[in-house]
Structure formats: C-alpha cells, structure tokens
Design brief:
Helices cover 52% and strands 12% of the residues. It has 204 residues and is of the alpha/beta class. About 11% of the residues have low confidence.
Length: 204
C-alpha cells in the first residue's frame, strides 16, 4: 500500500469521538480532511444549494417533506422542474468524494465513502465505537441536555445513519466485515486511538 496516497474512511457511532479521531489522523498525515466539507463539494458538483445536502446529510427520506419549504436552486431551471431526487443527491456526493480522493491522501468521515471508494487502491476503512456512557456524556456536552435526551438523540440519529448507509450500500452499517479495522475509542482515548490507527497503517 502506498502510504503517501492512502485514503482513510472513518465510520463512527454517534458520540464515539470518531470525528475527532479522523481529524487527528488527517493532521498527523498532513492530508486533507472531509466531513461536512463534502457537502460544499457536492453542492458545487450539482449546482444545488448546499442547504439541500445539509438536509440530506446521512439522512434518508427527507425529500418527502422538502417540497413544503422553499429550497433555492442555482441555475436556469426551477427547483421543482429539476432532476432532484434522493438518488441524484447521493450520486453528486459520491462524485465529489471520488474527485477529492483522486487528488491524493485524505480522510473521509461517514457518508458511505467506504462503499463509494470500494474499488480504489490504498483505502483503509475504519469504524469507531465507544462505551455508551462516554457516548452519552459527549452528546450531553455537545447538545447541553440530560441523559434521557442524549439517549434519544443517539438512538434517533444512529437509526437515520444506519438506514441511509444500508439503503445506498446494500450492506449493514457498523458490521465489522465491512471494515479493515474496528476500534473502541473508550479503551485508548481519542489521541491513543489515532495513534493506534497510525501504527496499524505502518503494518500495511
């Protein structure tokens, strides 16, 4: 594996610290980092407003209610006459992922990047999990809520994330067989988890 051109795709449970781990990996490798930045790239790829992709971000089915709101579209055709569909948005986002990957080493967070880049060389797919207590504490801190609300947020958002991933990939979100490495960030902490993954890369 060409370490200088490696592409790391990070899947993560909500509250696992997966975003932080991925950012540390990108910083250590001196490469580009893509999380919500992909939404901007997909918007440029498609000509649609970035807000459309924000509504669709790892969430399947939002178009059922989208036409009840005003959604800006860039271009000569009206939004309602465009070829917008759930599948077309996924295609635009996939194209953005492929273009970013073609530019060299980078780290992607979620958004089915592991599946989109499944035929690429120099790809490492990682899934980050964590103990539920730590996940609840992270969500509580992020959203300033209590334990019960944090649990509801985790269950709701993870169900959406899993539904989105399963639908577009035909695989099961979080299934160890889909990844090269699955790791519990509660064991080593965020920094230690990033270090472990860096050491794993050296063995490839």
């Amino acid at each position: 594996m060409d370490k200088e051109k490696i592409i790391i795709n990070v899947g993560r449970q909500l509250g696992s610290g997966g975003h932080e781990v991925a950012k540390r990996l990108a910083d250590r490798m001196g490469c580009r980092f893509y999380d919500k930045e992909l939404l901007n790239l997909a918007a440029k790829e498609s000509g649609f407003s970035e807000k459309i992709f924000e509504k669709n971000d790892e969430h399947k089915g939002f178009l059922r209610s989208l036409f009840c709101m005003h959604a800006p579209h860039i271009g000569d055709n009206s939004f309602y006459n465009s070829n917008l569909s759930q599948e077309s948005l996924f295609m635009f986002q996939s194209n953005a992922i492929k273009k970013a990957a073609a530019e060299g080493a980078c780290v992607f967070v979620g958004r089915c990047a592991d599946y989109v880049l499944r035929e690429y060389d120099n790809v490492l797919n990682v899934f980050i999990t964590a103990d539920i207590k730590q996940r609840i504490e992270r969500v509580k801190k992020r959203d300033l809520c209590d334990d019960e609300t944090a649990c509801k947020i985790i269950n709701s958002q993870e169900n959406e994330r899993a539904s989105y991933y399963n639908y577009y990939t035909g695989q099961k979100w979080g299934n160890a067989a889909n990844y090269h490495l699955c790791i519990n960030s509660s064991v080593l902490g965020i920094e230690g988890t990033a270090s472990f993954i860096m050491d794993f890369i050296k063995l490839l």
